[in-house]
Amino acid sequence: MKNIIKISLVSACIGLALSSCQSDLTSLNDDPKHPSFLPSDNLLATALYQSSYYMDNPSVNFNNYRFFTQQMSETQYPDETQYNLVTRNQPRNHFNRMYVYSINNLKQAKMNLVNEVEADDIRANKLATLEIEEIFIWENLVNTFGDIPYSEAFKPDEILTPKYDDAKTIYLDLIKRIDAVTATIKPSATGYSDLVYGGNMTKWKKFANSIKLRLGINLADVDPALSKATAESAIAAGVISSDTEAYKFSYDGNTFSNPVYDNLVASGRNDFLPSELTINTMKALSDPRMDVWFTKVGGVYKGGVFGELNDPYTNFSQLSPYFRSATTASNLLSYAEVAFLKAEAAARGYSVGGTAADLYIAAVTESMRENGVSTTNTVTYLAANPFNVANWKQSIGTQAWIAMFNKGFASWNFTRRLDNPILVNPPKSNLSSVPYRMPYSDQEYVLNGANVNAAASKIGGDKATTKLFWDIN
């Protein structure tokens, strides 16, 4: 059969120009199902989905942020709430999703954009979108692992084993990159019809400045002057100021489904519960968001014991349908979070356009609004839980932790920085304390051993209990 095809092809070339025949033969090497060139918007869409889905994923196999903040407990197996981060390779899985599936696609999109025909302003906006999204993922990585491959990463033709860069150095470069990229945005022109902001470059710019605000506030204890300058400049340049400007990846329920839905509904598994800490803290504050978020058992709210087997599932409060829809968006940098960051900045003495007490009220109010709580109930709640100037870390820390329920990464930043609420290491923990970082991927010790070992030594040991450079209190 192969010979017949070969003869037929040769016969078909008779009478045709040699170049034409060669073109026809060469085309047989093309695989239409695996194109050699992908449009940059396809690569961006993949990166947006991968980064959003896996930053927000509650699966025991990935980031475990919800367990690091003790907001969720487990039912069928308590390994992850006992801080076992080895058997399921969560560090490897998160590392790969962010590097390989997310940033790698953005790097390729930047290269492919060069060959796409666009007007100058549109090209500038598209490049800015790719850059801002990449910065967002780097910010997640550096605040999850600490020192990471950065300056030498993604240079396979030059460097196969990239060094691990100092985390604060990465912070400084990300801040510099944000300032540089926001200056290139052309607000009057469009960008990509992307899956977050639909090409609205004013919103992408506010998102970039909100990342900068996050970075700035994290620096507060380790470098107060830089923190103040960074936070104030971010707010002055314009940060997320409404829910419509929040960074949300939306799911259609068909092509894309919300990761909580996938893990609790589509999977048919009953693995996660609101923790006893979450329920008891909110009960003590008479928090009306409980009625939106959780179900009752025998007329009361009952949380699962963190770090223990909570079985049967039906004996405890569960996440309500509010969180279990296939189309619920992953709200990865919310207006409520930005409002709490501004309140914290004011409490630290930064000039951010309001007092800490007023911004605290604004932040709590936004969280209530976001979750469908009435104005009347919000006013009652704030009257019962006013801002405590003398113990502002407790006021902002506890309220931000509650407001960031189901926003695991954002919540983890607040609990590490403000040490409120106080998280107690469970009795059966595999660690000596609660986690402050994610250990490095086990694959790095095989593929990049010298560099990862040097990084581990530098930071004081590749342990989940090693604090990041900014978490000094």
UniProtKB/TrEMBL annotation:
Signal peptide start and end residues: 1-22
SUPFAM superfamilies, alphabetized: TPR-like
Superkingdom: Bacteria
Keyword Signal on entry: yes
Pfam families, per database record: SusD-like_2
UniProt keyword annotation of RNA-binding present: no
The entry's keywords: Lipoprotein, Signal
InterPro entries linked: SusD-like_2, TPR-like_helical_dom_sf
Protein name: SusD/RagB family nutrient-binding outer membrane lipoprotein
